[in-house]
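Sharing a chain and its predicted structure for anyone who wants a worked example. Both blocks are below, sequence first, tokens second.
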Amino acid sequence: MTVTAGAVIAGVPALLRFSVSPEVAAERGTVLYYHGFSGTKERCEPYLTALAEAGFLAVSLDAVGHGERRRADFDVVFNTERWDADFEATETDFLDLIDDTAAEVPSVIDDLLARGWARQDRIGICGRSLGGNVAYAAVLADRRVRAAASIVGSPEWTLPRAHSPHHHPGRFFPAAILSQAAEFDEYVPAGPVRDFHATLEPWYATEPGRIEYVEYPGVGHFLTPELTAESCRRLVAWFQRWLPER
């Protein structure tokens, strides 16, 4: 049986999913989860449940500007008309959400460690779409992230940014990186994700198993229920492999 509990971690609204207790689950590993654009920490039920049933402490967090701290002007700033009329300004606001969310990860980890809800060597991060972008950035933001998994997210920001994760492949090793992309993704093209993994390969030459790229054929950004389930299985297996039990 899994238990769901609300919390505020380092000032960030969070939802915890675990079996027995957060402290016991943290011994298996703590995995941060970030939702997609316009989503909330509650909208990732299959992933949280699967992680908790595997023994992990799953910590779902509201991204900056989302959920319990949704921007009051969210629908004004992020609407199709503004994106069409002023793409660069709107996209800049979007990228700021990702950057600001990733910047919170070190404080979130500090708080989890202080509460006994994480162990230094067993911390992972994952997310879907916007949350997948956050996962890549978080690896660079905090070396304590030992494993990361992205579902239809990208390491390449959509505007020229020197800090875009894809510019820094040498800073990812030894974190274990799983990327799951969709062949016909209309929002997060698979090409840059595929290219990023090719760029990572020399840095992981001594331990190539620490990186894996999966591309689901014939589908767009919103995976079928069957592929969503498959992405969930792969994600859990990744953390089982790279956040090993003592």
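Comments welcome. The mean pLDDT is 96.
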